[in-house]
């Protein structure tokens, strides 16, 4: 709440989503604001908050691109996140009773950057019902198709799964292989399963080998998931209130404000949330 208080929004109106639907930011959107350091400080605090708030990952990534030359549109978008935080005091829920099986979801927003036309990678990884890793990152090169962008996202996710698996192995946790990797692009999944390179895929050969080797070794298995059930969409694009709320429920974020239906009992509220996360998680997996 310190961020909300310092911005002067403690008693102001809250926002329902962290990023306005349809808003496209760019590096050339007007004059630099009079106090760019205030923008940089705010974005820095939001980046730190993002370590425990996956719901603002995409929004903060968008703002962090313009630290060198923030304009009025960037500042308004940053304040919009603050207004969202005012009405969404939540945190990651780590259930005490959960399995230790990994599952990952990845997505990409093709050519989303208006300045460079580079695509956006987004993924989230769960250990049981708890989200343990997530990322929103602009891809390093321009992708020539949605399939290519999605495949690069799969490669980044596989690398993250590898890193998490090393940590779990060091802790003595036995991994259940193969680890499901959910993607909503059939063409990207076909590239994994097709062992032949051709003119349209050989330029992404390095990423192909990263994912394909993991697939051939039985480490991951790509599975299709309907776009409407893809939680990784939260990390690649701004969503409508209805879609945002539906996918957010699958991340396991729990409101830190006690529910009136539990008589103000936070523990009771968390138990209700755990049941909801478990039910929603099954829906996602079954849809794959």
List the helices and strands and how they pair.
Blueprint: H1 2-6, H2 36-49, H3 57-64, H4 72-87, E1 90-92, E2 102-109, E3 120-127, E4 130-138, H5 146-170, E5 179-183, H6 186-193, H7 205-216, E6 220-224, H8 241-248, E7 253-255, H9 266-287
Parallel strand pairs: 2-5, 5-6
Antiparallel strand pairs: 1-7, 2-3, 3-4
Organism: Sesamum radiatum (Black benniseed)
Protein name: Retrovirus-related Pol polyprotein from transposon RE2
InterPro entries: DNA/RNA_pol_sf
Describe the structure.
There is one protein chain. It is built from nine helices and seven strands, in the order ααααββββαβααβαβα. It has 288 residues and is α/β, with parallel strands linked by helices. The chain has two domains: 2-88, no CATH class; 90-288, Nucleotidyltransferase, domain 5 (2-Layer Sandwich). The strands form two sheets. It has a five-stranded mixed sheet. A two-stranded antiparallel ribbon has the order 1-7. A hairpin with a 2-residue loop joins strand 3 and strand 4. Helix 5 (146-170) packs across helix 6 and helix 5 (146-170) packs across helix 7 (205-216). The two termini are 38 Å apart. Residues 258-288 have low confidence and may be disordered.
